[in-house]
Amino acid sequence: MLLLNNIPNIWKQIFVTVSLFFSASTMSYNIQENRLLNPYIFTNTDNNDITDINIRLIRNNKDINRASIFLTRNVYGGQKSKSQERVLTQLISDDLNDRYKVVVDSAHQKYPSAFLLAEEEDEDIIGCVGLDTQILNEKKRTLIKRPNKFSIISLDNDDKLVMVLSNLVVRRDKRNLGHAKQLIKSCEIIARDFLFKEVFLMVDSENIPAQRLYKKMGYKKIFQDNNASCVVSTPLALIKRKCINYCYRKNITSTNKKISTSLILLIVPIFLFAFVQHLC
């Protein structure tokens, strides 16, 4: 207290103001950290369907295997032979492991990624979605996955790392109840926690319902990829065919930025007032 009494009033006010600013920043960081550590819980009351849905990050490889089976059964419609289902499940599992396995051991996570499962109380999966860091080049109109041995120094001048939403799927009997919307919102929260300002996604040009949802949630089409390919399940075999994908983008700038701006606008007058008082 004796030390504080010997400090001029202007510096006392500056000290208090800066302390308040950093306290607010620390509190905001802790809130963001808790979002990632704690499960996402929401209650869906649309269409009188009152169900507690737990949206959480994957915990282990078992979750990845469960998600692979879920995606196989809910993405590819029609009849499939057991051998086709095994091949599809393995392809999806390899893709999920490549993009999200590192999430299980986050201490070794170099580039941000996350995979979320939406489960009912009995832990049945009713939906899922993923986020991973990919390479965007708007001039070339490309959005591609990072190579296995990717280094940031290999980026071209027009390349940039962005957060991409993918693998958004809701079980057929649970669609049109708001679950996809909640999964997207959860991804946007995590992307902000990773300090990204935008979320990107690619969607098949023929998937009109998905595009309608994305547009409703604020995503805007920025380009189309005419050289995309996709796997189609037929009664005889799995076929890889060409398709057209649309790239959508959404600005997810957090209200935290607005709060920080407000704090700065609050601090500046205090500094000026204290400085004028000191001059007088």
Labels describing this entry:
280 residues; single chain; 9-stranded mixed β-sheet; alpha+beta; globular; 7 helices
Q: What can you tell me about this protein's structure?
A:
The protein is of the alpha+beta class and 280 residues long. The protein contains seven helices and nine strands. It has helices at residues 2-5, 9-37, 61-75, 82-104, 179-193, 208-216, 255-279; strands at 40-44, 51-57, 113-119, 125-137, 142-145, 160-170, 198-204, 220-233, 238-251. Strands 1, 2, 3, 4, 5, 6, 7, 8 and 9 form a nine-stranded mixed sheet that branches. Helix 2 (9-37) packs antiparallel against helix 7 and helix 3 crosses helix 4. The protein is globular, with a radius of gyration of 24 Å. It starts with a helix and ends with a helix. Mean pLDDT is 77; it is low at 16-50.
Offer a concise description of the structure:
The chain has 280 residues and is an alpha+beta fold. It has helices at residues 2-5, 9-37, 61-75, 82-104, 179-193, 208-216, 255-279, and strands at residues 40-44, 51-57, 113-119, 125-137, 142-145, 160-170, 198-204, 220-233, 238-251.
Helix content: 40-55%
Which word captures the global form? globular
Strand content: 25-35%
Based on CA atoms alone, the radius of gyration comes out at 24 Å
N-to-C span: 25 Å
* Largest sheet, strands/sense/barrel: 9 strands, mixed
Structural class per helix/strand content?
alpha+beta
**Mean pLDDT reading:** 77
The counted number of beta strands is 9
Q: Give the count of helical stretches.
A: 7
Q: Which spans have pLDDT < 50 for at least 5 consecutive residues?
A: 16-50
What's the SSE pattern? Answer: HHEEHHEEEEHEHEEH
